[in-house]
Structures are given as C-alpha cells and as structure tokens.
Amino acid sequence: MPLDWNRIGSTGQQLLVQPRDIFAALPNKPFSYLRQEQGEVLEGWFARKDDRDVVIKQNTGGGKTVVGLLIAQSTLNEGIGKAVYLAPDTYLAARVREEAARLGLPTAERHDAPSFLAGRAILITTFHKLINGQSVFGIAGGQRTPLDLGVVVVDDAHAALATTEGQFRLTIPIGHEAFYPLFDLFADDLKEQNRKATFDITEGDVTAAVRVPFWAWANKFDEVWKILYPFGAARDEAFKFAWPLIADCLQLCTVMVSSRGIEIQPPCPPIDKIPSFVGARRRVYLTATLSDDSVLVTNLKADPKNLEHVVTPGSAADLGDRLVLAPVQLNPNLSDDAVRTLAKQFSLGDRDGDGNPETRPVNVVVLVPSSAQANLWRGLADRIHYVGDLEAGVAELRARHVGLVVLVNKYDGIDLPGTACEMLVIDGIPRPMSAADRREAAALIDSPTRRARDAQRIEQGMGRGVRDVGDRCAVLLLGAGLAMAVHDNAWLELFSPATHAQLELSRDVALQLYGQGLDGIRSALSVCLDRDPQWVQRSRFALASVRYRNAGAVRPEAAAARDAFDLAVAGQTSQAADRLQTAINGLTDPALRGWVREQKAGYLHFTDPNLAQQQLGAAIRDNPGVLRPTVAVNVRLTRPAAVQARTAAGYLGATYADSTALVLGVRTVLDEIVWDEERTDQAEAAWEKLGLHLGFGSTRPERLYNTGPDNLWTLTPTSNAVIELKTGVELTCTGIAKKDADQLRGAVQWNTDAYGAVAAVPVMVHPVDVYDARAIAVPQMRVITPAKLEEFKTAVVAFTTALTQGQNLWGEEQAVATQLAYQKLTGDRIIGTYSVAARGPGRG
After folding, report:
1. What is the pTM of this model?
2. Residue among 497, 502, 513, 493 at smallest CA distance from 540
C-alpha cells in the first residue's frame, strides 16, 4: 500500500523558524547553499526580528529576493501572523513568485486566498495594491475590515517610496469639473505669488506651476470643501484612490497649480490610513541604494531608533566587475553623439569603429529619463521599450543578443545579468514629474539633500547590468552633469561603499585616458568586457576590503517633519511648529533651512498668522524659492563688480578645486540652457549661474519679487542686461509674440523703477529675431538666437579651457581678465557680440 507521508516524521515536530534552517530543509531548492552574504544578512535580521522596522542593505544582485522570502516564511512558521511580500510592480511581483516556486515556498497572488489568510502561504503582490484609497487590505474608517499582518517585506524600498508619494496625492486634471472653480477661487492668490507663472498656466505652459499660499488655502477652506467633497463622496474617478487617504488632513495639504491640473498633497503621507501596514508587527525594507534612510521615516513612519542600525553582510565585495567612464570627463571635446555611435558599434562587435565587426557583439542597454531623450537614440536603437512593454524586452535581452536597447524612465527593478547587459549607458537622470517635486527641486537645486537623491538614482541605474559577483558591465555616463557626479568628492561620498570603490578604480583608469579621443575609451571598455586578468585582479582587490555602512542615516529635519505632521493631524499645530524649530536650529544649509521654515510657517498660521508671516520672511531670506510673505519683499539691488575679472576669479577659485571640475561644472551649466519647454526653470537657474561664472552680479528678479525680468546681469556701473529667456518656445515659431515683447518691456520699466539711472539693455533668448506682426517693438532690444547661443557657449567653453592650461589660472585675476577680453565676454562687449538686433515687422 502507498505510504501516507503526512504521518511520517511530523509527530511533535515544530516548524523551523531560523531562516537558514528553513532553507536547508527545502527539498527541491535550485542551489545547495545560501551565499555567504545572504546567510549573514539572515542571521542579522533574526537577531533583530522583534524590532518593528528593519532595513536590510545589500549590493544590487546580492540575492535580496531570497532573503525577503525566507524572512516572510520564518515569520509564518513562528506564528507571528500573515506574511506579505511587496514588489514595486506587477512585472517584478511575477519574478518574485518564480523565485519562490524555485525554492519550493508556498505563495498566493490574491489577498483573499485561503492559504494566505490561514498563514500557510506568502502573499506576493505590489506595493500599490496595499497603499491606495481602495486598498483590498482595508483603510481606516472604511467598510472593509483591515487585514492583520505579521510581516510586510518591502522589496526595492526606494521604488516603493515613490509609489507612496503618488498614492497620497490627489490630482485634479485640467479638464475636470472641479478644476476651474478651484482655480478661480485662488487666481488672485496665485498672481500675488507669481503673476507670470499664473499667466503661463492659463496659456498652457507645461513647466509653469505655482503653490497656493497656505494662508489662502486655510482661510478659504470652507469653499474648498464645498467644491471637492461632492466628488470625493461620489467616488469620482480622479478622487477615489487618493481622497479617502487625505480628506481628513486636507486643510494641512500643500496645493500646487499647473497647466496640467491641481495637485493636493499632505506634507507627509498619512500612512496611518493603511492600518495593515502601520499595524504590522514586523516591517522589513530591502534596498541596495537607499543611502539616506530619511524617507522611510517621512513616508512610511518607520521608527528612527530602529533605523539607527541597518542589517548588512559582513563584506560589500559581493558585486560584479564594473568600469564606469564619463567620456566628457576624459576629453571635453568629445560630443555625446560620438559616444552614442561608439555604443552602437560595440553592440555590433565593431569595437575599433572601422565598420567591420571583428569581435563578439554585446547587448548595450541605454537608460534615458524621457521620450525626448530616447529620440536622440532612435536612429541607432534596435529596440526602444517603455514600462508597458518592459517584460518582453527584458526577457528578450536575457535570452539572446539583441543589440542596442533603450529603456525609457526605468532606472530600478530590472535584472539584466550575464550577457543581457554587458554595456550600460546612462543618458540623463529622471526629472521630478509632479509640480510639487519640481518646485522642491528648483528650491533645493544646489542643496546636498537634492544631490543625495540624484546620486541614488544614478546608482540605481548603474546596478542594472551587475546582478551577480560573476557579472561584468562597462558603464558610460553621458553629459557633464553625470561626469561631475563621478569626479567630485562631494558626490562620491554619497554612493554606497562598493560603488564608491569601483568609481575610484575607474577614476584611476580615467586619469590615464585624459585628453585621448574615442580610441582610448574603446580600449578601456574592451579590457572590462574581455575580463582582462589584470583588470579583474584590480577590480576584485578594490572590493575585497570594502564594508557596508551599518549605521542608518536619518536626517534630523526629516524626523522632525514626520513628528510635526503627526502633531498637526492631532490638532497640535503650535507644537508641530516647535518640533520643526528644533531641526531648524541645527541646519547650516541655507536653502534647506528656508525650506523647513516655510513648513513651520504653514503650521504657525493656524495659531498665529502674523508670526507665520514673520517666519516666512526669514525663510525667503534663506531660500528665494519659498512662498512670498504677504508683506512685500524689498528689492536687493545687485551692484556691478569693481573689476569683473576679479569677481569672476574669486567665484571660480572658490567653486572649483581642479581643472576637470571647472570644465565639467561650466559644461553642466551650459547643458541646462537648451530649447526645451519642459526645462525652462532649469535654463533660468543655469543662466543665473552663468552670469556669476563671468563675474557679473546675477539674479532672478521675477522669481525673487514676482516682478521684473527672468534674469538680470549687472554688466557695468551704468548698464544692466534685462533678460527674458524663451527657451520653451518652439524652434519652428515664426516671430516674437506680442506677450513676450510686452513682458520684456515691463521688465525694462522695472529696471528703471528699481535702478534709476542704470540703463537697461533689453535681451531676449528666443528662436527668432523678428517680431510677430502684432508685437510692439522694444527699443534697442537684442536677441540671442540659437546660432548666437551656440557661439556664446563656444566662447564660454574656450574661456574655461584656456584657464585650465596652467595651475589654478581660473583663480587669478589677470589670467581671467585676459581670457574674458579675448573671448569678448566683458560687460561692455558680451551682449553686442553674442546677440542680434530685433527686427520688424512688429509695430514701433
């Protein structure tokens, strides 16, 4: 008779709890042993399993999925409660289920699966499925009873955090019935903040965005509620997922208006609305690149004390070989197009670029942040994949040689091991998409806080092609901005220890290639791709002694922001403001200090509106990107430099430590001044920096005072360049529009009112130099056309390059003076040289 195996070996047997033991007992696992780093991490977690929040950090490809699954199974076996494993998206959730099946661990796909509810299977689903206003897990105050969970494993925590912010944001698109009543209610308040941007919103400018002042939102809240509540109650399509999550804290929300819609978002996600997550006995966050753990506190309400220490393997050497080169760092004269062609040649096996394939072709994967950037590769790409067709695209890369494949706006969550991706190109990093994020990015543009976020995205991208210690990947970073990230020590410190070590090793290679053309880069890439024994030895040695940072990193102002929001939700807005002040006292970064002061002022308004405005006045002195207080901000007149060259030398000498940093820094500024309707704010910020590099007083009056030009350069003691940038105008336009000419005319009048006898030189950066028939001409107006802009950029690059030909020449007044004069960049010649006179048929 057949044996009943259920009656054999089970008497008195207890379920295994130690993750290592669970793995050892799996009968059909695909590999016999856990990797050493996996075992170390599981031991570390088990020692801390009773902590509510645990962060686990491993290098990309370090086997985090297996770790997370074993932790979930351990919790089930211990009888703590139901186990949920959350992946960033459905594609990755499917990959996790496949991994669990290979291990022989029971899983479920649905929240109502009997095996999951009975605690016999791990539910594998997406973070989005848990965190939304119609969550199948239940929400606070909802009709569905929330599910009680024992453990929630959050895979790719950085991706989950982005999902959280989006889920707690109510977006009312411009065509929605609630949009115009809400816009009209605050139109005057928006104009007081930024008249030009408000007008641009009505004209459909995709970059224009203005925050509704917190005092206007609070004072008109009854009208707001009457407009919004009917749509929330009716579960309107635009409202149904976010409204249940934010309705109770609506009065505290930040509100942004843009030409795409109105965004309403709390200062921190009210994560208490998801009881299943907040009440889970264990929450485990798996991450490879989350060097700043602050967002786990602000977004997911993790306990900062639990995050003081993170679980890591003993060694960080569990990473494949990676060579990272930034071509423009090696030779400033190399164009991005030339590097794109090189990448295509490597995908064909034509490494020497002679048109004849002579070696094994490789899969080249290109990461781009947008469709516009993808279009630059369209003539070279064998495939261009968006998120919707990503699964098939990745499967094809893993199965065979495809060629050059472009992935649009997907920098994390993709596994491309082995030959799936042997060369990786990162062509830009994602820009913030929401209006609130764009505003924060602009306000903190030079802040270390913002830099840390960008470094994280870069590292996420670089990890796509190295998923195992046996993998290899040659990485190319396009553009000066990315080159600066791997050159500047302030950036390098933001990467994980293993990536930092690889970047340092790559920099040693780069030093030998400096000044060479593409042939030097080709040779270096081949050394990595062919696994040259000398390269492999040095690569392994560079990683051998690297250790993870096992101390968590939670910024004090982030913890304060979370505490303050929770206090405000409880009605204790005065205490919320006090909590933020404790963080403000310790901040040395003016931009960040001003940003936090604005948050404090928002809470103060509920108890002392006058004091709130005073706080906002202090905030705008620290950071001109915050809300303008109701009392007008006094215009601070910029003064002309006593000697332009002396001022420029002082700025350049203080900003750049070496010649490479100088070249990359200037190129980064110039790269931001482009004809792109979605990057106009970046162009204005870059123009301001460019003026400082050249020794002019340089400001953005319209941003500072809600009036005046986009930019103002003090050229000489008797003249100011009053500049309007129209880099968002289509290059195919046929004339300077009346509204644009009128705007510049108003800026000239502002200069007269503010500066008196200092003459205004009216300048417009515009695709054409001819007025539209309806435009009224601005006397003596000059136009920087695309051709003139290129001449100007070329001169600035030449000015910079010349200053790198000797030791610290960029900090010496006489050397700077010589080059400014030679390139015609002095205050008395720059506008006349690099612009043309505007011409008819406009009316005079």
Report:
1. 0.87
2. 502
